[in-house]
Design goal:
Elements: E1 10-12, E2 15-17, E3 22-26, E4 33-38, H1 42-61, H2 64-80, H3 82-93, H4 97-117, E5 124-126, E6 134-141, E7 144-148, H5 156-168, E8 171-175, H6 181-194, E9 201-203, H7 209-218, E10 222-228, H8 231-241, E11 247-251, E12 256-260, H9 266-278, E13 288-294, H10 295-310, H11 330-345, E14 349-352, E15 365-368, H12 375-378, E16 385-391, H13 394-402, E17 406-407, E18 409-413, H14 417-426, E19 431-434, E20 449-450, E21 453-454, H15 459-464, E22 467-474
Parallel strand pairs: 7-8, 7-10, 8-9, 10-11, 12-13, 12-18, 13-16, 15-16, 18-19
Antiparallel strand pairs: 1-2, 3-4, 5-6, 6-22, 11-21, 14-15, 17-20
Helix pairs in contact: 1-7, 2-4, 2-5, 2-6, 3-4, 3-6, 4-5, 7-8, 9-10
The structure holds NADP nicotinamide-adenine-dinucleotide phosphate.
Residues 148-153, 157, 177-179, 209-210, 213, 228-230, 233, 236-237, 251-254, 285, 380, 408, 448, 453 line the site of NADP nicotinamide-adenine-dinucleotide phosphate.
């Protein structure tokens, strides 16, 4: 399929910039070069920030419904280009085409939602404590926003930040992951065609993640940085942003527990487990990392899960029927190998899988009776491995679920109404899926607690992240 949306230049101030150097974007399924993209520098980044800063007052002061109309036009163009966008995403990230198509719907839904929310940045009136006073609040755009996004959702991680920022009246400089810049540039192309004024949305591609990241975190023309990626990089950006006291939103790593209680519907739990674990080959921040299964149901769940995992079809995401694609790179494969070896060394039982295949592929794997000290329990595995841990009492399961510095997503299965409320309230996570393995959508707040980050994306709260609440006191 020829793809007219593949662009190799960065997008700054409404212009396409080639730069003096380029870097290759590789298809992780075939290791072939897809395109060679502009490798811009810190100096280029600074120019992009200057343009975003100059464009900010005009964009901020535009009537909300006009901003809304432009964002809605962007949404329509993204949906019209659904097939081409999904194709690019599968080429550069390796995820199965069916998942890429769903990601276009999911990512675009944030654009549509925030186009609507642009018109609803309401303030409030407050009963005054003193006669003659009138108190009220208004919401105003924060200013220039920098955004840094990862490769695992090349489209949605961008729209979840850029759409609310633009809706609020902020201008944006985005640096996408160097593994997946093509989807970001295709989004820029559609924004350009939608008629956004120059400088309002800028995409800077470049290999110098540290240097450009530092500029985006420290430049004093930027008022807010929004980052999705690893906790380690998020921590560093937060430290750098502290120098100019920027607002910070961080969507970081997770270590999601998936509890299956004795009173759960096993078939439903297995179905939820497959969705919660194998989407994007286990490379999502909300991927299940630890299956905590109550003793009475452990063997039955392990057996049914293993049967389902054995049926998964692994291959190139562009091939028909493929459900599990490659991992993103060799580092990803090495991490999965190390986690599986460590779990087996600590006495886990291998129920299926357990081997790397050629290229960046890894067999869907199930491990039972894993030691809680194993690496799979401590770190994000980011691969197609189900690690099953056993617990006896409800309190023990909850304690195991919370025994991590992360707190992004958690899931549990139970048919007991009282237990559902009890457990949902005690789990330490920003998001809890109850009898479901899939919970993210544009209308609900997405985000983590503990070292999984701060701030929320999506929902009515997503717009607040890009506004300042100003208080006015009239007398
Ligand atoms: P990563 O290494 O932190 O990379 C994320 C982004 O940061 C990429 O654009 C990367 O650029 C850039 N980057 C790398 N080093 C940097 C530095 N020193 N300064 C500034 N920017 C830097 O994360 P990853 O391993 O690619 O992505 C997976 C992680 O993201 C996982 O931990 C996952 O859980 C998390 N994630 C979280 C959410 C959420 O919503 N909570 C969603 C998706 C993913 P390059 O690609 O060019 O290195």
């Amino acid at each position: 399929m020829s793809n007219t949306l593949i662009t190799d230049k960065s997008y700054i101030n409404g212009k396409w910039i080639k730069g003096t150097q380029s870097f290759d974007v590789i298809n992780p399924a075939t290791h072939k070069v897809i395109a060679s993209v502009a490798d811009l520098t810190v100096a280029d980044c600074r120019k992009a920030i200057d343009h975003a800063y100059a464009a900010w007052p005009g964009w901020r002061d535009l009537e909300a419904f006009k901003r809304s109309n432009l964002i809605m036009e962007w949404f329509r163009r993204i949906m019209d280009a659904k097939n081409e966008l999904a194709h690019i995403m599968t080429l550069e990230s390796g995820k199965p085409l069916a998942e890429s198509l769903k990601e276009v719907d999911y990512g675009a839904s944030f654009v549509e939602w925030f186009a609507e929310e642009a018109k609803r940045a309401y303030g409030e009136t407050i009963p005054a404590p003193k006669m003659g006073q009138r108190l009220l609040t208004i919401r105003q755009a924060v200013g220039v926003v920098s955004a840094i996004t990862p490769w695992n959702f090349p489209l949605a991680m961008i729209t979840r930040k850029v759409a609310p920022a633009l809706a609020a009246g902020c201008t944006v400089v985005l640096r996408p992951a160097s593994q997946t810049p093509l989807t970001a540039l295709a989004l820029a192309l559609m924004a350009h065609q939608s008629g956004f004024p120059p400088g309002v949305f800028n995409v800077i591609t470049g290999k110098d993640s540290k240097g450009i990241g530092q500029e985006l975190a420290t430049n004093d023309k930027i008022r807010k940085i929004s980052f999705t990626g690893s906790t380690e990089v998020g921590r560093s950006l937060m430290q750098q942003a502290a120098g100019t006291i920027k607002k910070v939103s961080l969507e970081l790593g997770g270590n999601a527990p998936f509890l299956v209680f004795d009173d759960a519907d096993i078939d439903a739990a297995v179905k939820g487990a497959i969705i919660g674990k194998f989407r994007n080959s286990g490379q999502t921040c909300v991927s299940v990392n630890r299956f905590l299964v109550q003793d009475g149901i452990f063997d039955a769940f392990a057996k049914k899960l293993t049967t389902a995992v054995k049926k998964l079809n692994v291959g190139n995401g562009l091939d028909d029927g493929v459900q599990v694609g490659p991992l993103i790179n060799q580092d990803g494969v090495d991490k999965v190998k190390a986690h599986v070896t460590d779990a087996l060394d600590r006495g886990a039982k291998l129920l299926t899988g357990g081997k790397a295949k050629s290229g960046f592929f890894y067999q869907p794997t199930v491990l039972a009776d894993v030691d809680v000290k194993a690496l799979v329990a401590q770190e994000e595995t980011f691969g197609p491995v189900c690690a099953l841990f056993r617990f006896k009492k409800e309190e023990e399961g909850i304690a195991m679920a919370n025994d991590t510095e992360f707190g992004l997503a958690a899931y549990f299965y139970s048919n007991g109404v009282n237990r559902c409320w009890r457990v949902a309230e005690q789990i330490e996570a920003g998001m809890v899926g109850i009898n479901t393995g899939l919970l993210s959508n544009a209308v609900a707040p997405f985000g983590g607690i503990k070292q999984s980050g701060m701030g929320r994306e999506g929902s009515k709260h997503g717009l607040d992240e890009y506004t300042e609440l100003k208080y006015l006191c009239f007398e």
